[in-house]
Design a protein that fits this description.
single chain; nine-stranded mixed beta sheet; Rossmann fold; 2 domains; five-stranded parallel beta sheet; 9 helices; 349 residues; Dihydrodipicolinate Reductase, domain 2; 16 strands; alpha/beta; 26% strand
Length: 349
């Protein structure tokens, strides 16, 4: 069974959804609508039906799923209107800009009996999946520190993402993904503290980078860092466990694991530094450690749409749940509070 899909907003992510819909085994693209006539014309030139108005799209009885790929501040308004019109709704991230608005959207989904979700597509990123496997398997013991970074060097995008009124900034743009991943990795504990700091290197209105320390009740420290002024990038993931360490250097990398076989080592050769000798920082060797690589797992991001369609049909529970959406936004709100106070914020999330 195929579901008919309407896409609202035909910019970068709208085009992404269109490409996947054109190849999909579960949805068929009925058409798009964008407030910008130029984008509607571009769709028509590509052989895609473009509706003349939002109302025209929502009144098309064939469409039962709507994907919203507009600037962030109008997600709530469009989502509620679409559910009221009988459509199931996928919102691009962030689903909206505050928990109060999200609750209104959740309430609307219950009122109108429609499936409502946010497109957390980066749950299918293989670097994240390898990190979650390390956490769950405990193959290097209990993890106590996880560092997750995304670095670039081109500044914040010059479109609406640089405007506060549109919900711009990297905490909303990339943070919403990496925080969702953090909560999925450390799924067995609540968050107890948030400490967040912003960068304003190329944009004074919104953050063009941030660093967030997330402390979980079980003691795990999880760093989320996004930078847009980094000409040398740090590893995508750096992971410390009680019995070893792991590193994922970039999107395409395998997970390199160094596992400790034996803690004690006699006759350690000191390292010669500029100012003296040190045994503390002397490197390990193959007698006490083993190095191996975890392969990248198979992953298909379109499984998000497959699951959403099955949720519409009532045969599966939706993967991205309302409670998970709410937790991520609560962490985001705590991050803004921490920046404003320039101090850690105690939470129960």
């Amino acid at each position: 069974m195929k579901h008919y899909l309407g896409i609202i907003g035909f910019g970068g992510m709208g085009g992404w959804h269109r490409r996947y819909a054109m190849q999909s085994d579960v949805v068929e693209l009925a058409g798009i609508y964008d407030i910008d006539p130029i984008r509607c014309d571009a769709a028509r030139e590509a052989g895609i039906h473009a509706y003349g108005s939002l109302e025209e799209l929502l009144s098309d009885e064939r469409i039962d799923i709507v994907t919203i790929a507009t600037p962030n501040e109008v997600h709530k308004e469009i989502a509620i209107k679409a559910m009221q019109a009988g459509k199931n709704v996928i919102s691009e991230k962030p689903v909206t800009l505050c928990t109060e608005d999200l609750q209104e959207m959740i309430d609307a989904s219950k009122k109108y009996g429609k499936v409502f979700s946010v497109h957390q597509n980066r749950r299918w990123d293989v670097d994240f999946l390898m990190t979650k496997k390390l956490y769950d398997s405990k193959e290097i013991g209990r993890l106590f520190t996880i560092e997750s970074r995304i670095h670039g060097s081109r500044g914040i995008p010059g479109d609406w993402r640089g405007k506060k009124e549109h919900g711009g900034g990297m905490l909303y743009d990339w943070g919403i993904h990496l925080i969702d991943q953090a909560l999925q990795v450390v799924s067995d504990s609540k968050v107890s503290e948030i400490f967040c700091r912003f960068d304003h290197l190329t944009n004074k209105e919104v953050d063009d980078g941030f660093r967030m320390d997330i402390t979980f009740e079980n003691g795990v420290r999880y760093l989320v860092e996004v930078g847009t002024y980094n000409f040398v990038s740090m590893p995508r993931f750096y992971i410390l466990g009680e019995m070893g360490s792991a590193i994922i250097r970039d999107w395409q990398d395998k997970c390199e694991v160094v596992r400790c076989k034996e803690w004690y080592q006699s006759n350690v050769t000191p390292v010669v530094t500029a100012a003296g000798l040190t045994k503390t920082m002397a490197p390990r060797d193959e007698l006490t450690t083993e190095t191996y690589y975890n392969e990248r797992p198979a992953s298909d991001v379109h499984d998000y749409y497959r699951n959403f369609c099955k949720a519409v049909e009532g045969t599966e529970e939706q993967i991205v749940k309302h409670t998970e959406m709410m937790r991520v936004l609560k962490v985001i709100e705590a991050g803004f509070e921490s920046v404003e106070r320039n101090a850690p914020v105690k939470v129960d999330i």
